[in-house]
Amino acid sequence: MDLTLSPSEGEFRDEVRSWLQENHPGPEPEAGLDEVMSFRRDWQLKLHEAGWAGISWPKEYGGRGATMIEQAIFAAEATRQEAPAPANVLGLAMGGPVVIAHGSDEQKARYLEPILTGEEIWCQGFSEPESGSDLASLKTRAVKDGDEWVVTGQKVWTTFAQYAKWCMLVARTDPDAPKHQGLTYFLMDMEQDAVQTRPLVQITGEGEFNEVFFEEARVPDANVVGGVGNGWAVAITTLMNERAGLAFGAISQIQNSLGRLSKLARETPSNGGTAAEDPYFRQRIAQLHIEVETMRLNAYRGLTKTMQSGIPGPEGSLGKWQWADINQDLTELALEIEGAYSMLARGSEHAVAGGAWQYGFLRSRANSIEGGTTDILKNIIAERVLGLPRLR
Amino acid sequence: MYFDLNDEQQAIKSTAHDFLGARFKSERIREIAASESGFDEAGWTEMAELGWAGLALPEEWGGQGLGAVELAILFEEMGYALAPSPLLSNTIAGLALAAGGSDEQKERWLRPLAEGSLRGTPALIDADGPAEPMKFSMEPGDVLTGTKTLVLDAGSADFFLVATADGGRHLVEKGAEGVTVTAEESIDPTRRLFSVRFEGVRPEATLTGNGEDYHPVFHRACVALAAESTGLAQRALEMSVEYAKDRQQFGRPIGAYQAVSHRCAQMLLETENSRSAVYGAAWAADAEPESLPLAASTAKAYASDAGWRVPDAAIQVHGGIGFTWEHDLHFFLKRGRANAAMFGDAKWHREQVAEAVLAGETAPASA
Predict the structure, then answer these.
(1) How many helices (H) and strands (E) would you count in chain B?
(2) Chain A neighbors of B366, CB-CB under 8 A
(3) The pLDDT value given to residue A32
(4) Which residue, A31, A276, A324, B231, has most beta carbons within 10 Å?
(5) Cα–Cα–Cα angle for A233, A237, A238, nearest 5°?
(6) In sequence order, what are the beta bridge partners of B152?
């Protein structure tokens, strides 16, 4: 058992740390999403030029071939320094790995480089209004027409669809096959009139996600990834990649939030002293630290296991579940510390911390829904880790 | 970076698992729990032969020279097996002797303790004191007077390490003049608690160490106990999963119902978190001692809760049968609940964490 970094891992961390310190572009613009995206495109190009974009990708495809522990170190360090996200986060974390794993040589030659540079943004077309947790029930149809497919249907919760060139689209190509077998994974060109996107306004008031409508949109047969009818298996690869890549950045992000929470507690009056002196808040804050620490250590145990076996196990579901719980508890506690002032939101003169915690409280409601609901994760754990029988 | 057991540690785990599973079948645990002394002499002898009495004690004094990680592995299995044994109290007494004893004192007391021929137990909590870790009210001096309570395994111990207000430790033999041992009724029938009255007792020895020397001992004890609670949770989880697969109601195994399966998932989450916190703290004890206090409090706070809540949830999964004396689950609940209150409860340890983090100290971060 050894929780220390090896000398080469330590060197890697130092290299990441100092590169980020020297090249950090400062905070993201507070203006609209267009400005943010342009800022993130510049940042991604800088990352790419220094070899920090797609670090998990094999070197032959323009990546760094980083080990899993190096990926963890990079994610933790970038989040710790509050570096911006790259513009093409979905292309880097999911699109590229899928093309590398399942794509043809022609597809690799065509798609990978513009993902790394951020020249082409990717989005993910999986969820539909009637297919959320039961993803395999999706209804968007693709019908063969010569050497093209004609796609009709609707996708939802599509992040960055308005900026995307390519959509990782899963559509039903064989309506008669069992639901997991009739699906195909396409790379859909978003720049056509038959594809329309509309922002989906969420409870925070923002339109972070989109609805995407396909009205006989066209996709060439050459844009099928992994073969017709194999869409489910290909899609699962992207979801696994999403989960494995997220954990360590997420932990650092919570550690940052906890630091801000402690500061809030030290600055907020409570019970004749500060909230940081109030035994009730001390217990709650300590419990959050304890939970984050167990999550961090679990992630390292999971990483060790994955490095031995080569495949991320279903145990990763525990971390995603715990992350959602912690993030929600943390923002709830912040509002409790603020007391009556917690009623005031962004834009209000007397809002505490500019209303950041009010926003965080609302945004974190999605944490137990996005990327696999906590309820579904519990099913996965019950069935695949504990071996309990399925009801369905 | 390799956060898992290595081959030798895996071997310790499977030896402990197999031995304890064979020795402590339910009937045997019940026999020991119901016996007058609550002490299993034959079991102790076998554990001593396996080298467990001195597992984490220096080789120089007859121990195995292993670390807190190995200790955590062993105690996790002790909890899993629900083993009734003075191994925990004896281990702590050994660690205290190793930390604060002179060479002469170690030769006389630590060596036989590590071999298993003498058993010691710490006598810490003053009956008239605050019952908080590392706070003692008994006056130091040539003779000791006062009552220590919640003393583990005093009935089967040969000597006590008595803590005094200055943080010192004094070695008193059980047979010494002025010592009276009275059994208390613990909620946990698998570990006996006692009060020990000292009436002008002259100690055999006063250890040369000072109060601070025993802090790492306390933190290691917390980790070992947290490991034991993790083992209790693991066993209760496994019993529940087996039962939920087997038990049929409304024409299906109850584990197919999400009300039951999600409860089991929660039990797994708490058990795995507890184990991670324990391994992290055990590793810190061996490799990064400056982060041990925070890591030990993290582990003990978490495992204090999980160690009884998981068995509690197990009783719910089992329904009526889980509430019977005949089923073993109540022993796990009771042991877990007693462990939760021992060596600082979750609230006390959370306060230690709050003190550290609100002052700006961070968790031991490797990346």
Answers:
(1) 12, 10
(2) 3-5, 300
(3) 83
(4) B231
(5) 120
(6) B193
Q: Which domain holds residue A300?
A: 234-385
| Number of Cα atoms under 13 Å in the Cβ half of residue B353 | 30
The CATH number assigned to the domain holding B307 equals 1.20.140.10
| Gap from B128 CA to chain A (nearest CA, Å) | 25
Number of domains in chain B: 3
Residue B366 has a pLDDT of 40
Residue among B4, B274, B351 minimizing CB distance to A286: B351
List of chain A residues whose C-beta atoms are within 8 Å of the C-beta of residue B266: 378
CB atoms within 10 A of CB A371: 15
CB A152 within 8 A of CB A82: no
pLDDT digits (tens, 9 = 90+) for A347-381: 999 999 999 999 999 999 999 999 889 999 999 99
Domain boundary among B83, B115, B147: B115
- Note whether A66 and A87 are same-domain residues: yes
Q: What residues of B are in contact with residue A293 (Cβ under 8 Å)?
A: 277, 280, 298, 363
In this prediction, the residues of chain B whose per-residue pLDDT falls under 70 are 360-367
Q: CB–CB of B3 and A248 under 8 A?
A: no
Which residue out of A242, A267, A332, A336 is catalytically annotated?
Answer: A242
Query: Does the active-site annotation cover A148?
Result: no
Taking only the tens place, the pLDDT of each residue in A238-267 is: 666 555 556 888 999 999 999 999 999 999
Q: What is the value of pTM for the model shown? A: 0.95
Whether residues B229 and B353 fall in one domain: yes
> Which of B353, B358, B363 is the closest to A265 by Cβ?
B358
User: Mean pLDDT lowest for which of A68-77, A136-145, B213-222?
Assistant: A68-77
Structural domain of residue B167, as residue ranges? 120-210
Kindly state whether residues B300 and B333 are assigned to the same domain.
yes
Q: Please say if the pLDDT value at position A97 is more than 70.
A: yes
A139 shares a domain with A96: no
Domain assignment present for A340 = yes
Instruction: Please give the helix or strand (H or E) that residue A325 lies within, else none.
Output: helix A316-338
What is chain B's alpha carbon radius of gyration, rounded to the nearest angstrom?
A: 20
Using DSSP's 3-state secondary structure scheme, residue A352 falls into: helix
Touching A: B residues 254-273, CB under 8 Å:
255-258, 261-262, 264-266, 268-269, 272-273
Looking at B185, B210, B235, which one is the last position of a domain? B210
User: Mind telling me how many Å the CA of A256 is from chain B's nearest CA?
Assistant: 11
Identify the pLDDT of residue A392: 63
